[in-house]
Amino acid sequence: AKGAGRNTLRFFDPRTQANVTARTLLEAGLRDGLRDGQFLLYYQAQIHQQRGIVGAEALVRWQHPQRGLVSPAEFIPVAEASGLIVPLGVWILRTACLQLVEWARDPQTAHWTLAVNVSARQFRHSHFVDEVLGVLEETGANPHRLKLELTETLLLDDVEDTILRMDTLRALGLGFSLDDFGTGYSSLSYLKRLPLDQLKIDQSFVRDLLTDANDASIARTIVTLAHSLDLGVIAEGVETQEQRDMLASLGCHTWQGYLFGRPGPADALVQSVASATTW
Ligand code: C2E
Ligand code: CA
Ligand code: CA
Fold first, then answer.
1. Whole-structure pTM value
2. Is the dihedral of CA 4, 6, 10, 14 positive or negative?
3. Could you tell me if the CB of 60 is within 6 A of ligand 1?
4. Which ligand has an atom closest to residue 256 CA?
């Protein structure tokens, strides 16, 4: 009885209750937002040292009627926990593919790839592969221009299932980038087995690249690893010319970050091509 009393007390803890309420409200808001078209995709350029813009990463935003732009860091975890990430994820994929179709019409942008973040629950959903296939057919987007960004924890959660899904999508032409690389617990033997195209150096290693010797050696190790596994490598969170130069000297020649442009509407990205000629 005493134990039950404690549980009851804990259940009515006002802070917990407030959290539960906030979460429930956010969840309801997400559901309404999806119905009312409150989501949009921002795009951030991915730059190659010689080739200029080679593509972009799609980053979802929630235009809330009262709160304004809400960060995905706040609502993606709630969308994951509630399962809403599945319909939201389909919307993201469809919108990204429609953007690819638009870029394909312009010779200046036709070669761009688009990287789309996929979260664990979305990737594991029983219909995920079919949904990707459906969206590609429906939009007519070129699968060779579509890249999925997956995290280490997601990939290693069920390696056999992961490889099966990746191989099926790869056969359609899709590419895969390993997001936030270095922050998880990748086993190198698994890394070799996964059909990846690219490693993405996490921004936490780029931030103090010039002042922290550990970060510099981690970045160097990731570049070496990518090269030896015959994978591409991109650095995210590049904010300064010094970081860019340092990455280039370590052998990483593809970058993404505020130095080259903040995430924004697709138009802004296309306009930046005209203004920027050298990187
Ligand atoms: P992420 O995939 O690691 O995305 C990179 C984050 O770094 C983005 O934050 C981007 O705006 C930010 N960023 C870009 N350049 C710089 C820079 O130079 N300096 C710094 N400090 N930050 C930079 P954002 O857009 O707020 O997204 C946060 C996270 O939310 C993403 O991290 C990703 O995990 C998740 N997310 C965003 N869009 C989607 C989506 O469409 N689907 C899913 N499943 N998750 C998404
Ligand atoms: Ca990402
Ligand atoms: Ca990342």
1. 0.93
2. positive
3. yes
4. 1
